């Protein structure tokens, strides 16, 4: 099965949970990317999910094309006047030749056929367009005991159920070939203050959880949830969660 087909399989029915539980990128990231662009006519958000980042980009561009291979994700996206959502693969999108000023793939590029994707980037890029491959890495919980228990869960317990593409997220896409003129970028992170329910809801959206459940090992999440709850304390207590943001930025 090709990576894009694996992605569709993992996320085809997960749009509602994604919209509710997945963290959004900071507005500062969209602002920074827009400042790198020479024009602000059209942006493309590939693998857009439910359009969380698409909405941030839309504040800086006349129009945004937001695409995903999962119809469920697109169905759960919130409409906006200058965003057109479409069920399309990243390697074959409906953007016109030479029309896109900013091309973004946020937490999605590891599913792409990179060679074909880069060919598509060259086709649709406007002169001087910016390509941004963005991901957020392994989270940290701002409570030592909870963070330690999470690390064991992530690497040792649920780790074997991540698809092979996950390694690219863990290394911030550093292993990707990237044949574009590099653009320097500032250090940014995602920060959220979450209750236990919000945190576990996010974990429940992982493709590794779906894979473990399909393999008959769904109890892994239940056991982790119980142990984390005993360490968390009051389940309504908010705890700071931080994800480092990795970026591969280039000018096409």
Could you characterize what this model shows?
- The protein is an alpha/beta fold and 252 residues long.
- The chain has a single domain, classed as 3-Layer(aba) Sandwich (Rossmann fold), CATH 3.40.50.
- 38% of the residues lie in helices and 23% in strands.
- It is built from eleven helices and nine strands.
- Strands 1, 2, 3, 4, 5, 6, 7, 8 and 9 form a nine-stranded mixed β-sheet that branches.
- Helix 4 links the parallel strand 1 and strand 2.
- Helix 7 packs antiparallel against helix 11.
- The longest helix has 14 residues.
- The chain is elongated.
- It starts with a helix and ends with a strand.
- 35% of the residues are buried.
């Amino acid at each position: 099965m090709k990576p894009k087909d694996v992605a569709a399989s993992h996320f085809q029915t997960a749009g509602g949970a994604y919209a509710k539980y997945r963290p959004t990128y900071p507005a500062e990231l969209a602002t920074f990317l827009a400042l790198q662009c020479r024009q602000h006519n059209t942006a493309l958000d590939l693998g857009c999910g439910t359009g969380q980042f698409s909405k941030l980009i839309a504040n800086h561009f006349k129009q945004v094309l937001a695409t995903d291979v999962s119809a469920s994700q697109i169905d759960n996206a919130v409409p906006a006047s200058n965003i057109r959502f479409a069920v399309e693969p990243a390697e074959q999108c409906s953007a016109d030749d030479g029309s896109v000023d900013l091309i973004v793939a946020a937490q999605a590029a590891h599913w792409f056929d990179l060679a074909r994707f880069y060919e598509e980037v060259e086709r649709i890029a406007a002169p001087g367009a910016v390509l941004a491959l963005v991901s957020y890495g392994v989270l940290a919980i701002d409570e030592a005991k909870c963070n330690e228990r999470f690390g064991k869960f992530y690497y040792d317990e649920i780790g074997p159920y991540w698809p092979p593409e996950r390694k690219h997220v863990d290394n911030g896409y550093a292993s990707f070939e990237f044949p574009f003129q590099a653009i320097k970028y500032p250090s940014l992170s995602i920060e959220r203050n979450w209750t236990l329910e919000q945190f576990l809801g996010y974990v429940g959206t992982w493709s590794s959880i779906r894979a473990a459940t399909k393999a008959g090992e769904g109890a892994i999440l239940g056991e982790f949830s119980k142990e984390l709850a005993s360490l968390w304390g009051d389940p309504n207590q908010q705890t700071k969660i931080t994800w480092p943001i990795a970026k591969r930025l280039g000018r096409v």
